[in-house]
Amino acid sequence: MATAPSTWSPTSWRERTALHQPVWPDQAEADVVRERIAAMPPLVFAGEARQLRESLAQVSAGRGFLLQAGDCAESFADFSAVSIRERLKIILQMAAVLTYGSMLPVVKVGRIAGQFVKPRSSPTETVDGVELPTFRGHMLHGDEPTAAARTFDPQRMLQGYHQSAATLNLLRAFTKGGFADLTQVHLWNQEFVASSPEGRRYETMATEIERALRFMAACGIDLAAERQLHEVDVWTSHEGLLLDYEQGLTRRDSLTGDWYDCSAHMLWIGDRTRQLDGAHVEFFSGVHNPIGVKAGPSTSPADLVALCEVLDPDRTAGRLTVISRMGADQVAELLPPLLTAVADAGHPVVWVCDPMHANMFRTSGGYKTRRFQDILAEINGFFTACRGQETWPGGVHLEFTGDNVTECLGGSEAVLEDQLNLNYSTLCDPRLNARQSLDLAFQLAELMQAAADTRP
Ligand code: PEP
Ligand code: CO
Fold it and tell me: Nearest residue CA, atom 4 of ligand 1?
């Protein structure tokens, strides 16, 4: 990638309008916290972000898929080794299904170790007759419905930094220290999933993988010596929303002299903050990480091409991922013109489908939810649109959890509307539970396999 325009600096975003930022009660205190974060070690290294960019370049060329997934909003309260391990398990399990199904590499990126700030459609909400600031993520304030808890507190940026550091530390240990070893493929199936139809299907596949490994060993291949069988790369990502925090973690790489946002390997710009002349686009135009941008129904082809031009002027493969989130009923109409416009402009972007964010609705009981069928329908529509425009369907962006939650409706043993209250624990948007995720993975694997089989 070429260097940023000469007008760019880690603070140049301050000249632009920054939407969805907190107004800190004490700006001076927030500045002090940002300076403290700026003096702390980076969470990730520039070289890692470059490795991810290279993997994504392979995806953009049709030689792999991206699985980007995790919580809608991570929680300061749900922070333990078990919770991190369970989230990793479901990533590894889904990735195994997708890799085995498509026979192509799957690049694994978590919404983890930094996904603590949310844009919200309304600044306030009414709880028990009291109007309060809407909950916007644990890095800004508490979720309890009281005015005191909802007051923005910049010290929480420090807590977010430390929780991200500890989460990353454990992720690195798990992924490089044996837990992600392919010989453990059976262990990633959770007990409460194992007896379900998709759990049993997974067991069958895991046994086939084990047999393939034994076959390779019998042929004389020294499996112990093959690093790829024993370690995986799971990269981190979050929405780069809170610019004070992102600026604080932005460092110049000593090897290349380029700027990187070292809060995560990959950052994305949300659908509400992708204004061409806005602060978020300005900030992320100058850092060299792989960047994602969400594209919702209001994205015109001209908007998107202009965004690609600003975020990836040099057309570097792997730099830019466009995350389409159109809704099951609109994807067939709205996505093809975007695919054509970006291809005509020569941008080698990775196209990804987020089938979650445009398929949300509220039940009469007041729960925010999504239907499994709508999620699947949007993914199907995405693959169909890509096939129609001869574009590689690069992957998916999902909200899920390893827990047995009841937040999304449907699935093979359907979660029903009157069961949502059984275990509805998300801080923000409804997530697929472990069984729904696995179910989705098998259906997705078939689409990926078909795409891989017919690719030029
Ligand atoms: C999200 O990914 O949680 C989110 C808020 O998405 P979007 O910007 O697409 O609405
Ligand atoms: Co969400």
Answer: 270
Task: Name the pairing type of β-strands 291-295 and 320-324.
Answer: parallel
Cα Rg of the chain (Å, integer): 21
Q: How many Å apart are CA 305 and CA 314, to the nearest integer?
A: 13
Place of tokens 């290279």: 54
Which position has the token pair 């890799």? 99
Beta strands in 105-220 (DSSP E): 106-111, 124-127, 130-133
Residue with tokens 């970006």: 342
Q: Model confidence over 56-99: pLDDT tens digits?
A: 999 999 999 999 999 999 999 999 999 999 999 999 999 999 99
Give, in degrees to the nearest 5, the angle at Cα 139 between 67 and 273: 60
Give the distance (Å) from ligand 2 centre to CA of residue 236. Answer: 16
Distance 204 CA to ligand 2 centre (A): 32
Per-residue DSSP letter, 152:
-
State how far the Cα of 447 lies from the Cα of 444, in Å rounded to an integer. Answer: 5
Taking alpha carbons only, the member of 236, 262, 249, 245 closest to residue 113 is: 236
Q: How far apart are CA 284 and CA 90, in angstroms?
A: 30
The CB of 294 under 6 Å from ligand 1? The reply is yes
Tokens (6 digits) for 351: 């196209």
**Is the minimum distance from the CB of 265 to ligand 1 under 6 angstroms?**
no
Predicted confidence (pLDDT) at residue 2 exceeds the cutoff of 60: no
